[in-house]
Amino acid sequence: MARRGRLVARPRNVSGMGPTGLLALDSAAERDSYLYVPAGYRAVQAVPFMLLLHGSGGHAHHGVDVLQALAEEFGLILAAPASADYSWDGMPGRHGSDIAVVERALEHVFANYAVDPARLAIGGFSDGGSRALTLGLANGDLFTHVVAFSPGSIAIGEELGQPRVFIAHGTRDEIQPIFACSRRVVAQLERMGFDPEYVEFEAGHRIPEDIARRAVRWFTEAPESAPEPAPSRASETRSSPEG
User: Fold this and answer.
1) Structural domain boundaries enclosing 144
2) What share of the chain is helix, strand, coil (3-state, %, to 5)?
3) What's the whole-model pTM score?
């Protein structure tokens, strides 16, 4: 399962009240990982959850820094594990140790917090956005939404289910040029039968505040879409420069 990029952790009924605020997340990676739980969280009501993957050479706190205020406003839990190495590993059929890092992060959250299975996203920036797309489509029976900021590529061996997809990319991105990256990714997704929400903005390789807000609003306010298992099918693989 892990070699195929498949995740087995699933939300469950939780009765206890886990701590809130910015917390350390034990993902068994050597670098620090983080969990953010809004102050208004109560175990009696399941809340939206987003797993965040940092960019190449980045740190787990970057994603939390960008979305923390929005998480408090919209009432969602964020988990930001750190990759074992400089960036995330794995390609179709060759998923490495980071799949275990992601699995442990999900297992910790699902064991301690009430997560809404109809509002469960994986997201990331740059190389993390590429990895989020790959894992999100390989686990469409778990993730209902995928949020990719400035992704470089999408590499799929097979996909399961059909999560909703949001992609945003700056037209002046000097690290991952939009014409070679997100525009190709969007075209590939459309050929695969997806209808991604796609946003281009006038900026470089970053996540502007208004784009982050748009993505969170899209995720939390979208029609409910609890995942439904679907037959997996082979898909094309495309590689682009990643950052």
Assistant:
1) 21-223
2) 25, 25, 50
3) 0.87
